[in-house]
Specification:
The chain is of the alpha/beta class. The protein has nine helices and eleven strands. The strands form three sheets. Strands 5-4-3-6-7-11-10 form a seven-stranded mixed beta sheet, sandwiched between helices. The longest helix has 13 residues. It is globular, with a radius of gyration of 18 Å. The N and C termini lie far apart (48 Å). The relative contact order is 0.12. The structure holds S-adenosylmethionine (SAM). S-adenosylmethionine binds next to helix 4. S-adenosylmethionine (SAM) binds next to helix 4.
């Protein structure tokens, strides 16, 4: 057993991880961030029993495995840019975590813009977390996402121009947002809601922050420094 864990640690260390994932037996992947902190913030249903779940832009798969842990009958993880694209990521983390967790999460290497019901089917709950602001065609992307969503979409994104009431999408110069070349746009909340309604959702809810205390520095950054921040939307068919 000791050797197995040493072998697993060596495998883990050979991968560049995006998600911190607890693999059990004291082994934790050295991710860039810990998504466990985000689960409450995203208001992912605690009980997903019997639901089918699609995780778009799954990368190392933390949220896919979490949906499975919450009872989902079927989970499909999709990605392309991080798995086989030009970024620094790979699919090795997802594959290793799936194996070690003995997970049944399915996978499909497909770009957001290529999602159709014919290619991947449709799902009760769709997770679209941390992807929208990377995309050059956010409205078209939301239409693609809507086409594979039967009931509930959970969308988390960077937002900008939050003080602006009219639907507005800020575009970023190269490296302007967080020095990340893949960050392309910052819609404001009104724009996200408008795009969701335009794509066929009939109810859109902005999710409250996890706690007011957490939100004070966010409020200062957003209102006084006029920086963007992150928001979570739930949209229903
Ligand atoms: C910030 S990560 C979010 C990963 C995960 N959903 C989460 O919330 O932790 C962005 C994800 O969007 C995907 N993505 C899709 N299209 C992209 C693009 N044009 N540029 C960068 N990332 C893109 C990446 O592959 C990656 O998995």
């Amino acid at each position: 057993m000791g050797t197995d864990i040493a072998e697993l640690k060596a495998e883990v260390d050979a991968i560049r991880w995006y998600h911190a994932i607890d693999l059990g037996n004291g082994v934790r992947t050295p991710g860039l961030y810990d998504p466990a902190d985000k689960v409450a913030r995203y208001h992912i249903p605690a009980d997903l029993s019997g639901r089918t779940v699609l995780d778009i832009g799954a990368w190392d798969g933390f949220f896919s495995f979490e949906a499975e842990r919450r009872g989902a009958a079927r989970v499909l993880a999709t990605d392309s840019y991080a798995w086989s694209g030009t970024g620094w990521g790979s699919k090795r983390g997802f594959e290793l975590a799936r194996r070690v967790l003995e997970s049944k999460v399915e996978d499909h290497d497909i770009d957001v813009m290529d999602l159709t019901p014919e290619r991947i089917g449709t799902f009760d709950v769709v997770l679209f977390l941390g992807v929208l602001y990377h995309l050059r065609h956010p409205m078209l992307a939301i239409e693609k996402v809507a086409s594979v969503c039967d009931h509930q979409l959970i969308l988390e994104t960077h937002v900008d121009c939050v003080a602006q009431r009219k639907p507005t999408v800020r575009l970023y110069n190269w490296m302007e947002l967080d020095a990340d070349t893949t960050n392309f746009c910052g819609p404001n909340p009104a724009a996200v809601a408008l795009m969701l309604y335009a794509a066929g959702f009939t109810r859109v809810e902005i999710q409250p922050p996890a706690s007011r205390l957490y939100n004070v520095p966010k409020w200062v950054a957003t209102r006084l420094l006029k920086r963007g921040h992150r928001m979570v939307f739930h949209a229903f068919k």
